[in-house]
Every structure is written in structure tokens, then in C-alpha cells.
Automatic annotation (TrEMBL):
Source organism of this protein record: Melastoma candidum
Protein name: Uncharacterized protein
Top-rank lineage group of the source organism: Eukaryota
Length: 419
């Protein structure tokens, strides 16, 4: 297959995304106002709680089984690598640009979390439907593509809510409290917490309250160091461990970490892997097949709705914010130049070691995970935390505009590598 044919195959799904995104942007214009800020809020809630949840459950339970998950074990690891790599590069960008404190966690989120589900659910089937596709029969290709996109979407959602949401929430709380970790009070508190000291005994407290005696002031009595009993040492160690566990749990908001998409991924994995439950729900003779078909029906609405919301949210980014140009350029360079190049080395290296199999569509999916624009869930997180919404809109707007060209370019390169 020639380069021009590969380019056309790669361009079609990107154009599909662009057209729906442009429709969402058009509907959000003030003259049309069908996707106003209030309308987007309600639609976003429907997508977040109903449509996207149904999509994850139905796709995972239908496509992922215990056998297939065993062969696709590298994909969760590959996605984890994209998060780690993006976080490291984001830290470098923050140091180089000296980004303000209020957008540092946002930079980490946009650099580490890619749109691992919705775009793949559009791109992979569209590539399979092309007559010049290098992946063989379109029906079989679409089936496997749906499986790869579903697993990518589920794993990505878990990572986003367990990692990106946590760091963005902690950053938002620090700004709300007015602490940056550099003040004397915060330093003192950190030292006290790390020492793990426990309150003194009643005798020590009384001695402090009484103050030094006359005898002590006149002669400077030499005091022996306190001797702790073994039992007290054990109690102190136990108190330190308990205090550290308590401090760690305070940083974790389990209610938000168990977001609907995370719960949906767990349920989908459970249904798909546990064969008896799978037979109850999935299949033409399954007793509860109407439950699965209804869930899948609701899930079909998720992708177009999410794409419309992407376009509508970009309108806010057109109005501008305080994000510097170098920060935006840095995020674009990280997501569309550095990460895809490193991703080619990682995936091709794993392929040469025989760790990713020989399915070209699977390898193409792994490569594509390094070249995707930031996840829209980052914008959802800023809306939940009520912070950084305008800054996030600007970053998403420019990264998605540039993605129209970079996705086509990298898809062509990846198709050439696996063809």
C-alpha cells in the first residue's frame, strides 16, 4: 500500500471527529445557543453518569474475556507507561516555563492522560472500514478494534480517576487553604508529622507547666537522657505507622475515585471474565440479554455526545485565559512529538522481544495511544473541582486543533510501520 493510500485511510476517521466537533462548536455559538453552558452541564452529567458508563459496561462485557485479557496484558502496562512518561515530561515543562502554581497539576493531567477511549472507538472502526485498510477483513477488524478500544478506554478511565484526579484535587485544596508547602508553619507541620512524635506523658506536661526549679537555675543540674521502655517504643512505632496511614487516606477521596466510569470498568471486567454471568447476559440465547441490549443501546449515544461536548467546550477556549503560549506549545510538543517518538521505540522494542504478539491492529493501537490528544475527563475534573476551567479549555482547544493534523500524520506513520 502506498503512502498516499495510507494517508487517506488515516485521514478519514480524523475528518469524522472534526466534523462532529465542528457541529458541537456551531451549536454552542450564542446565536444558536443549543449547547449553552447550562445545556452542556446537563448533557455532561448524562454522559458522565449514564451514557459513558453504559458504553464501558457493554463494550467490556461483550469483548473482553479471560482468554483475551491474558493475551492483551501489555496494553494496561503500555497505558501506564504513557502516564508515567507524560508526567515526567510535564515536570520538565513546568521547570522550564516556571508555570504558575495554579496550572501545574493541569499541565501534568493534560500531558499524562490521553483520550484513550472515545477517539479510538471512532478511529479504529473507521480504519477497518476503509477498502485499502491493511488489517484484512473489515468485520473481523472492527470486532478486534472494538475490543482494543474498550480495554483502552476502561484502563484509561481507572488511571485518570486514581492518578490525575488525585493530584488535581490535592493541588486545588492547597490553593484553597492558601498553603504552598514553603511557609514556616507548613514546614514545621511536615517535620512534626515525619518525626511521628506522640504526646508526652502527664509528668512531662506538668514539668513544662511548672517551669525550671530554683535548684536547676542555680546549679545547672546534669540530666540523664530519658530511657524509653520497650513497650513505649512499640507504642510509638505503632502510632507513627497509624498516623502515616491516616495521613495517606486523607489524601484519597474514595467517593470521587470510584467514579461511574471506574465502577463501570470493574463491572464490565467482572461480567466479561466470569463465564457464567457472561452467559446470562450476552448471546442470542442469554436469559437476560435484554438487559445487555438496553445497556448497549444507551452506550451508543456516548461517543457522539462526548464529541459534541468537546466542540462546545472549545468555544470557551477561544475567549482566552492566563495560560502562557510556551506552556501550550510545550504540551503540544510533548503529546505530539516526544511521546509518539518514544512510543515507537517502546512498542517496537516489545514487539521484537515477542511481548505484544504479531497482530498489526493491536500494535497500531498501542502506538496510537502515545499520539492522542489530552483526555476530555481532565476537563470534567476541572468542572468537578471548580478550578482551572478556562485554562483547561484553552489547552484543550489548541491541542485538539493541532491533533487534526498530527493524528493524521502519526496514523499514516503507524500504518506504514505495521503494514
Amino acid at each position: 500500500m502506498g503512502v498516499l493510500q495510507l494517508f487517506v485511510v488515516a485521514l478519514m476517521p480524523v475528518l469524522k471527529v472534526l466534523i462532529v466537533t465542528a457541529v458541537g462548536l456551531f451549536l454552542a455559538l450564542e446565536r444558536i445557543n443549543l449547547l449553552s453552558a447550562e445545556s452542556r452541564k446537563y448533557l455532561n452529567n448524562l454522559v458522565f453518569y449514564v451514557f459513558n458508563t453504559s458504553l464501558i459496561v457493554s463494550n467490556l462485557s461483550d469483548t473482553v474475556t479471560a482468554e483475551s485479557f491474558a493475551t492483551l496484558w501489555f496494553m494496561p502496562l503500555n497505558i501506564l507507561i504513557t502516564f508515567i512518561l507524560g508526567s515526567i515530561l510535564a515536570w520538565v515543562l513546568i521547570q522550564l516555563t516556571r508555570a504558575p502554581q495554579n496550572i501545574r497539576s493541569l499541565i501534568i493531567g493534560t500531558c499524562s492522560a490521553g483520550n484513550l477511549g472515545n477517539l479510538l472507538l471512532i478511529i479504529l472502526p473507521a480504519v477497518c472500514d476503509e477498502t485499502n485498510s491493511p488489517f484484512g477483513d473489515s468485520t473481523t477488524c472492527a470486532q478486534y478494534g472494538k475490543e482494543y478500544a474498550s480495554l483502552s478506554m476502561a484502563v484509561g478511565a481507572i488511571y485518570i480517576w486514581f492518578y490525575v484526579y488525585t493530584i488535581m484535587r490535592i493541588s486545588a485544596e492547597m490553593r484553597t487553604d492558601g498553603t504552598d508547602g514553603n511557609s514556616p508553619s507548613s514546614t514545621l507541620t511536615a517535620e512534626e508529622d515525619s518525626s511521628g512524635s506522640v504526646p508526652g506523658t502527664l509528668t512531662e506536661t506538668l514539668l513544662v507547666m511548672e517551669g525550671p526549679s530554683d535548684h536547676d537555675q542555680g546549679f545547672g543540674r546534669q540530666e540523664l537522657p530519658p530511657v524509653e521502655s520497650p513497650r513505649r517504643t512499640k507504642v510509638s512505632c505503632f502510632s507513627r505507622v497509624r498516623q502515616r496511614i491516616s495521613n495517606t487516606l486523607k489524601l484519597i477521596d474514595m467517593k470521587k475515585l470510584l467514579a461511574p466510569s471506574t465502577i463501570a470498568a470493574i463491572i464490565g471486567f467482572f461480567i466479561g471474565i466470569v463465564s457464567p454471568i457472561r452467559k446470562l447476559l450476552i448471546g442470542s440465547s442469554a436469559p437476560l440479554r435484554v438487559v445487555y441490549s438496553s445497556t448497549a443501546f444507551l452506550g451508543q449515544v456516548a461517543v457522539p455526545c462526548i464529541t459534541l461536548i468537546i466542540g462546545a467546550n472549545l468555544l470557551q477556549g477561544l475567549k482566552g485565559s492566563g495560560v502562557g503560549a510556551f506552556v501550550i506549545i510545550g504540551v503540544i510538543v510533548i503529546r505530539y512529538i516526544i511521546m509518539p517518538l518514544i512510543g515507537i521505540g517502546i512498542v517496537k522494542g516489545m514487539h521484537s522481544l515477542g511481548m505484544v504478539g504479531s497482530d498489526p491492529l493491536y500494535i497500531f493501537t498501542l502506538l496510537l495511544q502515545y499520539a492522542l490528544p489530552p483526555a476530555m475527563n481532565v476537563g470534567t475534573i476541572t468542572q468537578l473541582l471548580q478550578t482551572g476551567q478556562s485554562e483547561c479549555s484553552v489547552i484543550l482547544m489548541w491541542t485538539y486543533v493541532v491533533a487534526a493534523f498530527t493524528l493524521t500524520f502519526w496514523s499514516t506513520v503507524f500504518l506504514w510501520l505495521v503494514a
